[in-house]
UniProtKB/TrEMBL annotation:
It holds the Pfam family Asp_Glu_race. It catalyses: D-5-isobutylhydantoin = L-5-isobutylhydantoin; D-5-benzylhydantoin = L-5-benzylhydantoin; a D-5-monosubstituted hydantoin = a L-5-monosubstituted hydantoin. Its EC number is 5.1.99.5. InterPro entries: Asp/Glu/hydantoin_racemase, Hydantoin_racemase-like, Iso_Racemase_Enz_sf. Belongs to the HyuE racemase family. GO terms for molecular function: amino-acid racemase activity; hydantoin racemase activity. This is Hydantoin racemase. PANTHER family: PROTEIN DCG1.
Length: 240
């Protein structure tokens, strides 16, 4: 099978890091490739960035469909354009937030999420509700560091994450932690070793879920909601 990881932002180094995380956990026979648009925001921090990133992401999926890609992982924790992506793709499209939440609900009763900036907290809270996990998610926390700061000062990012995980263990009584940004994926193992709590990275969770779905023969339903977008011709134009 061939899984394509799509980083919706235009920072190639972040795409490479997410790919490294994916390659570390994939099955030997699974092919994983990674791409990112070049005309999208350098990081996705809020609804406007999400909206600007979706057209480029959908274009990458359409290119993947022409190549016969079996499944896609959207490597942004806001899961931008996820429903639209599923309309375009034949195979499964996995958002890393949804994948991480599903894993957390499987291996723990209660969990907390730690993201980058406070402005992302309401977005993630809404996603948690959409995914039916509101009762299980104890808190959504932020280390108040921009997404690009994870690369610019990785030591400080790791220090802040360890500190926030310890607070989540004590104050939230969290039994597992989800890292709320694809740019945190390389820190997952070290954070788990330092804190003694299961730490879930959405990139690796999504890759394993994609492998399972493709291996079982599941594809995206094309009945009603996720049917392919209708072709709009000249006859559909509104006359003034």
């Amino acid at each position: 099978m061939h899984i394509r990881l799509i980083n919706p932002n235009s920072t190639a180094s972040m795409t490479a890091q997410a790919l490294d995380s994916a390659l570390r956990v994939k099955q030997h026979e699974t092919q994983v490739s990674a791409v990112n648009p070049t005309d999208t925001p350098v990081s996705i921090e809020g609804g406007a960035d999400e909206a600007a990133a979706v057209p480029g992401m959908l274009a990458e999926i359409r290119r993947g469909e022409a190549l016969g890609i079996d499944a896609y992982v959207v490597a942004c924790f806001d899961d931008p354009g996820l429903h639209a992506a599923r309309e375009v793709a034949r195979g499964p499209v996995i958002g890393i937030c949804q994948a991480a939440v599903q894993v957390a609900m499987t291996i723990s009763r209660r969990f907390s999420i730690i993201t980058t900036l406070p402005r992302s907290i309401p977005i993630i809270e809404d996603l948690v509700t959409d995914y039916g996990a509101e009762r299980h998610c104890r808190n959504v926390r932020a280390i108040n560091l921009p997404v690009l700061g994870l690369e610019e000062d990785p030591d400080e990012a790791e220090r802040l994450l360890v500190e926030e995980i310890e607070k989540a263990k004590k104050d939230d009584r969290a039994e597992a932690i989800i890292l709320g940004c694809a740019g945190m994926s390389s820190l997952c193992d070290r954070l788990q070793a330092a804190t003694g709590v299961p730490v879930i990275d959405g990139v690796t969770a999504a890759i394993k879920l994609a492998e399972a779905l493709v291996g079982a023969g599941y594809t995206t339903s094309k009945v009603n909601a996720y049917d392919y977008p209708r072709i709009k011709g000249a006859e559909c134009q509104v006359c003034v």
